[in-house]
UniProtKB/TrEMBL annotation:
Belongs to the ABC transporter superfamily. It is a peripheral membrane protein. One of its GO terms (molecular function) is ATP binding. One of its GO terms (cellular component) is plasma membrane. CDD domains: ABC_Iron-Siderophores_B12_Hemin (cd03214). Keywords: ATP-binding, Cell inner membrane, Cell membrane, Ion transport, Iron, Iron transport, Membrane, Nucleotide-binding, Transport. GO terms for biological process: iron ion transport. This is Iron complex transport system ATP-binding protein. Its main location: membrane. It is found in: Cell membrane. Residues 4-246 form the ABC transporter domain.
Amino acid sequence: MNGLAIHDLSVRYGRRDVLRGLSAGPLPRGEITALLGPNGSGKSTLLRTLAGLAKPAAGSLTLDGAPLALTAASARSHSVVYLPQALPAGVRLQVLESVLVAARAGRDPALRERTGTAAQRDLATAHATLERLDIATLANRSLDELSGGQRQLVGIAQALVREPQVLLLDEPLSALDLNHQYQVMAVLRDVTRERGIATVVVLHDINAALRACDRAMLLHDGHIAHFGPSAEVVTPASLAQVFGVRARIEPCSRGLHQVLIDGIADRQGIASRHTR
Ligand SMILES: Nc1ncnc2c1ncn2[C@@H]1O[C@H](COP(=O)(O)OP(=O)(O)OP(=O)(O)O)[C@@H](O)[C@H]1O
Ligand SMILES: [Mg+2]
């Protein structure tokens, strides 16, 4: 199947193994995989490794069955786009300008046209992306004058205009209000399907993962504890094991599944306390 696959990947910082022998895949094109796990479980490390920004101690990656070398340059040539958890501050560009720069950077330098048509196409794409993310009114504002959430939306726009084949987003909803969280996940779903992108999104909102992501990968203790269709792998048992919470999963009136947290589980994953 086409998509991104992880083969026996290990990553260490100094002498400490953070990820040990991870294998999964494929993470199919046209689908969103939610990367879930506790603080410090290695989600950002895995995403940075997929982006070629952290060097693994062992293992390999493939995209559509072909090796994807684990270097930033190689990842770029395969159009792997990564949005970090913390966005850079102090950038003086205007919003539209920054999105245009990203659109140009996303093109293969060998194919980069310098014609008026290419520039017009970039401009149209940039405007359409800002519109789609509900931030067209920010086009002429300076990046360093934006709120945290507005800057996060611009970061997502910059990632989308690069037209990736693999899209890696680290907590893209962390600064967004309810309305924008919903809109961003809807746009990601549409774009992922339309363009056949293999999208991986780190989330702490399990309900967003259940609602908008096709698959979920749960990291725990340096391993992939669960990987599969979201509704199958996000269960009270897996949430107790991975997050140490006592959870219920109940259908809402629209038939979607919702996670409700009742308390903290003990180390065996059995409820020990009620917090309500
Ligand atoms: N540059 C680094 N040098 C040394 N250790 C690091 C480095 N970056 C992360 N770590 C450690 O690696 C582990 C995994 O960190 P990582 O940032 O991948 O976690 P995470 O799952 O993204 O957590 P969070 O949900 O808090 O963002 C943590 O124990 C962290 O302290
Ligand atoms: Mg992180």
